[in-house]
Fold:
Amino acid sequence: MNEVNDNKATPAGNPEAEENTIPAVDAGAAAHDLELAPEIKQLQADLDQARAEAAEHLDRLLRAKAEVENTRKRAQADVASAHKYALERFAAEIITVRDSLELARMVELPADSSPAVQKMHEGLDLTLKLMDSIFQKFGLTRLDPQGEKFDPERHQAISLVEAEEVPPNHVVNVVQKGYLLNDRLLRPAMVVIRGEPAAKKGAEQT
Structure:
């Protein structure tokens, strides 16, 4: 009886017995993995899709943020420009008034002028000084290029003359002063400039 029982019993720690049970466990795990494989693939696909959508949403967010910032900067620039040049039309009109006052001031008074006329002359001086102060306050700068080199960006030549006292291509006379509004040309100065000497022109032609 003892021999029969010994043959049927499986001693603990028997390597052969353990080897017989391992393949059964591995086969079950492999079958379980096979069953989960489609679900894992689907989860991986869903994860990849979610990542792609997140990247797309982030890109759209960054683009929208950049567009908002650009719009804000453009709006600020427009407001600054509108504020800077809001007086352009008014300034173009008011400088003609100053031209008239300046022409009136250039009239020489006779020695026997009445005190009232002399006071009016003094009033013109004060008015011109006051206007110049206001022009400076609002960014209006007068262009009086007497003796300066001709600048086609700021000057308008109306004639050429021969003049020894100024170099060629320089302003001999200012017919009408020009104006800048915050460094932008409002009206060019109308000028007479010295042309090239006749001798030099003849030499260039030969």
